[in-house]
Structure formats: C-alpha cells, structure tokens
Amino acid sequence: MLPAIALVGRPNVGKSTLFNRLTGTRDALVADFPGLTRDRLHGYCRSDYGSAIVIDTGGLGGAQDEVSQLMARQVELAVDEADVVLFMLEAGAGITAADDEISTLLRRSGKQVLLVINKAEGLPIDATAAEFWELGMGEPQVISAERGDRVRALLQHAFALCPPSGEGPPQVLEGIRIAVVGRPNVGKSTLINRFLGEERLVTQDQAGTTRDSIYIPFESGKHKYVLIDTAGIRRRAKVTETIEKFSVVKSLKAIDEADAVMVLLDAHEGVSEQDVSLIGLVVERGRALTIGINKWDGLTSAQKGRLNSELARRLPFVDFVDQHPISAKHGSNIHDLLNSARRAAACAFVDMSSSRLTEVLADALAAHPPPLVRGRRIKLSYAHQGGRNPPIVVVHGNQTERLPLSYKRYLTNQFRAAFKLRGTPLRLQLVTSQNPYAGKRNKLTPRQERQRSRVRKR
C-alpha cells in the first residue's frame, strides 16, 4: 500500500494549489475564493523521494452551517486515512483562532503532522517561520505552492515521515468509468455514497453542494468501476458564479472521459427542458447512457403513470436507452442501474465483423429496399465498422447522399437489433463509391475513329 498524505487547513490557504502541484494535474479547482473544495479529493504523487496518495480537503473553521459540518466530517475521514498530515497556514496572516482549533484536532489524531507555511513568495524563510514555532508542531516548512518554491524540500520531509511505499503507481483508476450527471440536487452524491456504503461525498438538500468532479475507484462483484461524481448542470442563463462555470466545464469534461454516463432525473420534478438537453448532449458526444429516475419511491401510482407518459413523450430519441426507477436514499434498484451502465459501456466498444454487417445490410435491403430517386434505385453494396465508442457503421453505395433520413433510421435500428446494442448511440456513415470511368472518354473502335476523322475534315 502507498502512504497517504492529507492536506488540512482553514479555507483559502492554498491546499488545492499544493494538491495540483504535487500530483502534476489540475484535478482540484483553484480560485481566490474560500470554501471552494468540499469533498475530499484523491490524487497520485510520484517524486524522487517516493510515491504517495495525496488527499485534498475542504477548509476547516469559519461558518458553522450544515455544509461546513459535513465538510469537517470529510476532513476527519481524510486525517484517519492519512499517514502524514500537512497542516497548511498562510504566511503573513499569523496564527488565527481557526488555526489553533485545527492544531488541537491534529494533536488528538495522533498522526504525523508537518507544519506548512504557504504563500511566502519573496519572504525571508527564517523570519516568516518564526511566529509559527509557538504551535509546538516542529519546524515550519515555508513554501509557495503557486510558484513551487521549496516544495521539493517539503516532499523530502514528508516522505521521511511516511512508511515505506510500494513499488509502482497505484491502480486506483482501473475499471469502467461511469460519470453520474444531472441537474443540481437530484441525488448524484447520495447515489454514489449508497454504492460505496459510506458517506464518501458531502450530501445536503441544497443545490450546488458538489463543485468538483470526484473520481472514486469502486468494486462490485467481479467488476471494477471508477465512479465520477459531478457538479449539477443548469441552464447557461442560470449559471452566474465563476466557480459554478468552472464546475460545469469539469462536468462536461467528465462526460467526455467516461465509458458510460448515468443521467439522474428527479421523479418529483418530472422531465425538464434541461434534462432533455443534457441527455441530448450525452448522445451527441457519443457516450453510452443509462437513465435513473431518482426519488421514485415517494410517488403515488397516479404520479408514476403520468411520469411514465411524460418520459415516453419527451425522450423518444433515446428509445435504445434503459430507464430505471430508483431510490438513491434507500438503495432501491441502484444495482440494476449500475449493471445497465456496465452493459451499455460494453456495447460502446463492441467488435462487429464486416461479413456480419454486410449480411445484416443485405437482409435489411431485401425486407425494405431503398426508395427510387429520379427513377433510379439507390444501391447499397457493403458495410464495415468505422470506429468504437460510439460504434460507427460505414455503408458503401451509390447516391448515398440522397438517402432519406427515415431510411437511415431504419438501417440504424436494423444494425442495433442485430448486434443487441442497448444504451449506446450508433453512428451511420454513408460513403458514395466513385465511378472509375467518370470523366473519361470511351475508347473508340477503328471504324468510329475513321468516321470522326472524316467529320473533322469537313
């Protein structure tokens, strides 16, 4: 097992900036905005001194509302996981009351603690560290996470306190990547917590609780997954805060990186325009898809009937996608939803032989030939696979650009049924074969040449 290093401190002392510096990524959102990080975020650090898992946490201290209490619980869990805690403070701000409270918490934890003084760009090291000795937590490490000043020396001290690490990188991101997306407050974090069987993510009945995209390794049965919790996606007109705009961008990036996407709907609110747009976006991006209708257990029979009618009316363009009524809070049917996402991801990467595709094409043409165009029948010759995730079927023929949209849908449905492709978009690419004799003069016989010569002489 690799050692774990947790970054702890009050809000806006640079924990996420240091996390990105240590992991060499931009996985943690960073802005001059206190309270940005809420869930704990795991990353992988490799250095000349060893390898470790780095845990970013939300800021402690400040407001005492419900979200802050949940964030504090996440920090406690991160400290429990860690072998070494980097207690971060801000140069120039001195020791605040919140810093005193955090130092007391860390002493009680019994963990190895390294005092880190951040934002010390251009400041003298000894003078900057002097006022922090009174915490009694050892020699302060004065750094600049933003510029990278003395971060290498910090790592050397941190790994000196860590137990020996294993060889090679941890396999924390192996498995089927499943992004859980939806509008704010539909239960995405609650669903992931239910899968994991622990309060891994901050949840609250308040829109915007999740701000970052969190990647969480998870195993169920014989299958490995990476669950991606994302920020709620609202209509662009309603996205006003800069931080929320960053969060939405990271959610869209998570969709592109996923093997399959779970879109959660709120059964009590029905199918909104934003839900339809989000599902359309996932299909347009070519991602495998499954739909979960959350909070289903709170509906009456009449409400369930009306919702089913609304789903059929608003989502006819995803008739190939499975829909599952679930309760993230109580765990009802959530494993059916997970299995559906796994099967959809498998369909997205299916291999289709050219011979079988051409056979399906021939059967479709025999059952329902293409229409006539200007008195001529459109001919489709053969088909082969052109790509995966999503599957692409390339069909060759003549006048393919004149093929009606209704017939394209017919062919798509025939290929989908033949290969049992549920949950994944299927792209149909039509290629018109080139006539090798187009633009070339026909070769004349000797008699025709003599006739043409006589005509020219006249």
Secondary structure blueprint with pairings:
Layout: E1 4-9, H1 15-23, E2 41-47, E3 50-56, H2 66-81, E4 84-90, H3 97-109, E5 112-118, H4 125-130, E6 141-142, H5 151-161, E7 176-182, H6 188-196, E8 214-220, E9 223-229, H7 242-257, E10 260-266, H8 273-284, E11 288-294, H9 301-314, E12 323-325, H10 334-348, H11 354-367, E13 372-373, E14 376-377, E15 380-387, E16 392-397, H12 405-419, E17 427-432, H13 446-457
Helix pairs in contact: 11-12
Gap between N and C termini: 96 Å
Number of strands: 17
CATH topology of the largest domain: Rossmann fold
The best one-word shape is elongated
Stretches with pLDDT under 50, minimum 5 residues: 29-38, 166-172, 201-212, 235-247
SS content category: alpha/beta
